[in-house]
Amino acid sequence: MRDKSANPVRSIPGIFLERNPIARTTEYRADIDGLRGIAISAVVACHINLPFAAGGFVGVDIFFVISGFLITRLLADEYDAHGRIGLADFYARRVRRLLPPLLLVVAATLVAGFLWLLPDEEVALARSAIMALLFAANIHFWTVGTGYFEPASTLLPLQHLWTLGVEEQFYLLWPLAFVGTAALARRRNRPVLPALRLVLIAAVAASLALAIVQGPSRAAFFLLPARAWELGAGCLLAMAPPLSAARARWLAPLGVTAILLAILVYDAHTPFPSFRAALPVVGSVALIAAGAADPRGVVPRLLSQRWIAGLGKVSYGWYLWHWPLLAFVRIQWGGGIHVVRDTSLVLLALLLAIIMYHRVEMPIRERRVAGFGDTTRSLASGGALLVAGLALAAALWVWAARPSPAGSLMAQYRTARSGAVRDFPFCNDPAPCASGAPAGGPALLLWGDSHAAQLGHALDLAGRQAGIHILTRTEGGCAPGGSPLGVRRGDPRWMACAAFEHRVRAELAGLRSHRNLRTLLFAGGWDARQAGWERQLAADVDAARRLGLRVIIARDVPLHSRDVLRCTVRRGADSCAEPRAAIERRAAAVDRALDEIAAQRPDVRLWSPLDRLCPHDRCPAAIDGRLLYRNQGHLTLDGSAYLAPALRPVIG
After folding, report:
1. Are 55 and 263 in contact (CB under 8 A)?
2. Distances in Å between the alpha carbon of 1 and those of 70, 223, 365, 508?
3. What is the pLDDT of residue 417?
4. Are strands 517-523 and 550-554 parallel, antiparallel or unpaired?
């Protein structure tokens, strides 16, 4: 028996179907599976950085439209046939369709995490697995603050499950809304179909308005409220008025054009979703509608080709498998672009998906497995699988807390990964943030972001030796002269940085008079792509000079090509060192701007940590058995202490 959730089912006259030819399809619509095949191919191509597929992430939006359409048709068919919706039966079908493949992939991912991940990575994986199994992966990845397009997201093995979180929440809520609306309409002797359409139109309008207002934010990207209109578009299509075959002939090419345009033109820099998601959504609606009205049209027949429809049938499994494989390989061997390697991995994922489709998905969906033979057993088995998956994730979380021998590389790793806030706290308000020699003598103010904060321990040690009192004003992401890269003017993060910098500027004169401030040290993780930072930095330098302050500008510590800490623990310190020339090339644009600022102001001193951190033309990951870095470009406490002798003559 074919699972009804695969595509729209039979045509039964009723309150929906008698006026809705879109529902009058054959039992199986290969063109919808073909559209699924296009969607999953676009997503996978985007994830392995294939040319001309930078916008392939819109395949997710296509899936949302398809899900809205199919689920609404299932509900409508059942309501027409029986005058009611069996919610238990509906959720049992969802269990058979979604849970077994999901649990298999999540379990395999957790086992792989046990074998290959480091402790903090194991904790992150366990947390994401728990949230995924609680149908809240999208909420989890929204709260952890890692955007979909950020490089760090490629190292999260289960981040792709955010889309299932959105759909699962839709599956929970929409049937209840359907049943409630239908019951209310019948109680008031009103037609059910117009009532459902009205509810959907209101929901779609509200969700689209929210998506536009929120813009390209993490909340709009990950959470159901701003994504619901995409699913709702499919729902409305399932209740749409008739479409003639003549219109379908021109609607189908327009749908193809809209989807291809989004895939080819959009990329990681496109503000998304907002109204831009309308392109793939409208394109998907057009193709589904055209396939129903004119199934023998050119485009529906192309989408119904066996190979593309076959990809659609295994699209769920392919989507589940491809991302963990990519993530684990990138974790182990680096997150750069390797088209051949990554293509091989997604083909392996496709093979696993095909096997899982025939050995797991279809036997369970067709109720050939005893534990899923009826509604009660399906729900019970689904609950048992969820409990087992949650237990496995909890076990990995507990295992990650195992102790490490004191002084070992793993112990240093744990300290470095957990100690940034403890070791280098930000000081972003007028409260005393002081170290070094006791107050009363000459003082130095450190001003900058996290790249400045990491110098705090070195300055404390150097200040004690040189008799310099150290004051600190630091805020994450707020390098002097700039705001976080990619943050627009007026954004809350931009405003926070602007307020922080304004407070520091306003303090300088008072610190000069009352705290014996003599030196101002600028430090930051400047980025040449941030427009105008060098002009504002130069202005702040000049303002400090007018106050009679001595000015020092610190170049940044080495920015490595990968997370040096994780690389060192996995592969050894020698394998993770980089040539100094490569580090200098990476910082060349920023360094030229700093050179220009100093060249025009002979009294301004430039200081570089590279002579200390990169001896013998190499930038090692560890010196004398002590790890220097806690990530790609931030120091550990030991790394900061190692800079103290180099800073001592500069500040004295």
Report:
1. yes
2. 18, 35, 8, 77
3. 82
4. parallel
